[in-house]
Amino acid sequence: MTDLEHTSIMVRDARAADMGDVLRIYTPYVLHGLATFEEVPPTPDEMERRLGAVQTAGLPYLVAAWGHEIVGYAYATAYRPRPAYRHTIENSVYVAHAQHRSGVGSALLTALITRCEQGPWRQMVAAIGDSANAGSIVLHRRLGFEMVGTLRNVGFKHERWVDTVLMQRALKPV
Q1: How far, in Å, are 3, 82, 141, 157, 173 from residue 74 at the CA level?
Q2: Where does the pLDDT of residue 4 fall: very low under 50, low under 70, confident under 90, or very high at 90 and above?
Q3: What gap in Å lies between CA 73 and CA 112, rounded to an integer?
Q4: Following DSSP, what letter does each residue of 23-46 receive, concatenated?
Q5: Residue among 145, 172, 165 at smallest CA distance from 87
Q6: DSSP category for residue 3
Q7: What pLDDT, in 10s, does the model give residues 59-115?
Q8: Of 74, 77, 13, 22, residue with least CA distance to 45
């Protein structure tokens, strides 16, 4: 039994004070993983700027806490900047590696979807780095996302070409 099984996951709105923990979770993905195509970890100031941009756009940025520890985060951003896409958003979910398959990702994405269903958005897109990212693909599928395509070899990271998997979920009926 892990320590995480003793307490429940609390999902709440992110605050600027959480960005150090968010950066701690994100940095291994940048340096060693393929879930993000970012290659240099952002600075703490950049993470705060990103939080502010999401919040200013009226979109949710959430963190998951287990006890007093931040163990994951999720947020929504505009899918594309052109006005015709204004009703479509993209999600991002990151979980501390030690808490993979513990329910954190599911709790975060469920809360994010619920919050976004309450807004004016109609579609949510997941652009999943690496077609071998089975955990993220399974999580999204379990929460109602459908596979809509794979962009082959669109990223080059860690000396290899990497796919992006596209999944989509309706937030409201069309």
Answers
A1: 22, 23, 17, 23, 23
A2: very low
A3: 10
A4: HHHHHHHHHH-SS----SPPPHHH
A5: 172
A6: G
A7: 999 999 999 999 999 999 999 999 999 999 999 999 999 999 999 999 999 999 999
A8: 22
CB atoms near residue 147 (< 10 Å): 14
Span 117-159, pLDDT tens digits? 999 999 999 999 999 999 999 999 999 999 999 999 999 999 9
Structure tokens belonging to residue 90: 């993209």
Nearest to 89 by CA among 53, 56, 127: 127
Long-range CB pairs of 162-165 (<8 Å, 24+ gap) are: 162/34, 162/37, 162/129, 162/130, 163/130, 163/131, 164/127, 164/128, 164/129, 164/130, 164/131, 165/126, 165/127, 165/128, 165/130, 165/131, 165/133, 165/137
Torsion of the alpha carbons at 87, 88, 89 and 91, rounded to the nearest 10: 140
